[in-house]
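Handover notes (outgoing to incoming on-call)

Open items:
1. Phosphatase PAP2 family protein: sequence verified, structure written out, both below. Nothing else pending on this one.
2. Nothing else urgent.
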Amino acid sequence: MPPSTPVVPAPPTEPSGSPAPEAPADSASAVASANHAVASPPARRSLLSMALAGSAAAAVGVLGGRAPAATAAGPALAGGRGHGPGRGRIPGLDDVDVDSPRPFTEAQLSAEYASDRTVDYVPMLSGFLTLQREHPEVLEENLERTLRINHDASDEQEAAAIVDEYGDMSYTMANGLGARLGEIYQAAVDAGRLPRTTSLIHKDGGRAQSESTNPAKEFFDYDRPYVVAPDRYVPRDKEGGDAYSSTSGAYPSGHTNQAYWQGTLLATLLPELAPQILARTAESGHYRIVMAMHYPLDVIGGRMMGQAAIAKRWADDEFAELLLAARAELYAVLQEDCGRDLLRFVQRDTAYLPAEEACRLYRERLTYGFGRVAPSGVPMDVPRIAASLLRTSHPRLTEGQRRQVLELTAIDSGHPLDLSVHSTSSWQRIDLCAAMSAHVDVDRDGTVHLR
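Phosphatase PAP2 family protein structure tokens:
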């Protein structure tokens, strides 16, 4: 169930106009050259020493390496033209057989892609070490916030948390699409009419899935809330459930990582509803705290990892072809099933949340209200592959202009897990909801301005 907060009007729609040519995503070769295998614990600790000494860019690689300067990577768009989310041609839309959509071939699914290479996410998450070494008060607050959320949870939140605990969140989060459209989406999945979409996003074996959080959990080795405070939390599980049997570490949250790679993927496949999908994704992460399975910082770390994993997929040109095919399939099937005018149907549906309210909730969950532990005002350094997440929401912008959107919509520096103080890029600061739903103007020289 969406949270009960005041209704805020959605942002104004963007004027129509002829789309400019779509800029390509980051090349697969860039992904291949920057990815690296998961290091052994001693090697990872060496990487983290570099990070904490201010040389994290050398360690983080593709996930956190410094992006090139955010200048237009191609022809500048016409000066003064407004650009809103989701505007532009959907490649392959007219080729989808909505009655019997074709699945990917076995060759497409079994091929080796540059983005399949395993990445070490520990350096990107290494801000947790700073908290352990220098800010024990933040970790104490982390526990107290967890227990407060756990104790204050409603029956509806508990029920929803249990559903997400045991379900495939690419399916259980369907209500983020809207009351009626979510049901249409689930019916299409059940009928096997979204074979390309489900083969990428499914919990079990989804081709786009993120790497496991287990290596990071083993590295940080931080006990879960119900282990640290066994007499202070309220158990919230189904009868006969085994949610509290896990012996793995707390940071980062594996379920939240799953929610965010699935939710971020779905938002990029259907950017017309990105704010609502991302708000529902944030709620799924929040439910981990409701159950006292995880702390807020675990959830923030899970978000960072899940979104970086999907950015890696979109930054791989060859894999992005699968993603674009799935986007065409999803849009075409939903449009057919809701009366052949998806946008009008969405306007008449009961939204999960109005767009501005969804983005406000999402932004609150980026920090969970923790105070700063490092200076504010540090310029945002966008991770080198992060702009790929805006490929479908801002198809008429260049890669450099998409980076500018991420810079302009990022939250301020200094919150827990932000690495800006170490002069490296920060996944913690990326506000994807604000970036995907941003309405922008582009100067003749390619400079982007938020409306």
